[in-house]
Amino acid sequence: MWAPPPGAATRLPPHGSCYYSMDSVLWYVLTGTRGGDNRARVLAAVAERPRNPNRLAEALDLDYKTVRHHLDVLVEHDIVASSGDEYGAVYDPTDRVRDHWDVVEEILDEIGVDADVSHD
Q1: How distant is the alpha carbon of residue 36 from its chain centre?
Q2: Spatial contact of 67 and 56, defined as CB atoms under 8 Å apart
Q3: pLDDT tens for residues 32-68?
Q4: Taking the C-alpha atoms of 52, 106, 100 and 47 in order, what is their torsion angle to the nearest 10 degrees?
Q5: 27 vs 22, 61, 70, 86, CA distance in Å?
Q6: What is the pTM of this model?
Q7: Which of 30, 67, 90, 102 is most solvent-facing, going by the fewest CB within 10 Å?
Q8: How far apart are CA 46 and CA 69, in angstroms?
Q9: What is the 3-state secondary structure (H, E, C) of 47-84?
């Protein structure tokens, strides 16, 4: 089984690993790590409507680089996927996440993130 090297920050392996269920990945990425609230906001926003990082930054009132970082983490854990070229890429939840959307809603409710971000 995968384990982080001694002294390394605890982090789940990329989505290629079969050791963790999507439920566990969602709880970890959205609640168990620093920045989880913003990642949850990003996920809720792209679930409402696929968006590019610039639109996400505007809608969520976050810095563009912050949004890019959170998208990279979400992509790394197979929570969102991009479509299109690098600059114009839009992000959308993966099918695996959509299959576990009840868990996402439970997490959003628990951490107090409003799933409605339609003000952009």
Answers
A1: 8
A2: yes
A3: 889 999 999 999 999 999 999 999 999 999 999 999 9
A4: -20
A5: 9, 24, 15, 28
A6: 0.80
A7: 102
A8: 15
A9: HHCCECHHHHHHHHCCCHHHHHHHHHHHHHCCCEEEEC
